[in-house]
Amino acid sequence: MENWNVEVFFDGACPLCVREIDMLRRLDSKNLIRFSDISVPGFEPGKLGRSYEDLMARIHGRLPDGTWIEGVEVFRQLYSAVGFRWIVALTRIPGVSHLLNVAYRVFAKNRLRWTGRCESGVCEVPARATAERA
Length: 134
What we know:
- By secondary structure, the chain is α+β, with helices and mostly antiparallel strands.
- It is 43% helix and 12% strand.
């Protein structure tokens, strides 16, 4: 039986995202995080009741009871799982919380551009070569 606190759905083709995920994997000594790369062939978001585009638009997580979380709250859960609860507490301070939410929305909107994944000046969610799109 698995014992985890949070499942994170991340874009494994995003260099900045992978750097963060790699750090979390190293820190997750108790294996409290499930890591799900949405960029791998065969990943089927429809089975989760989500679209690929929705999952690509911002980071998503799921708690063991099935509750979905998004954005900064995912990072709070991830950092709590690796023992950084004091940092998480700071992120809940009203002004800090608001700034982090705004900063994350800006990052999520621009991450394809900032990671060099736009083609011909157009930044769109990359198409997936899966049976789901066939």
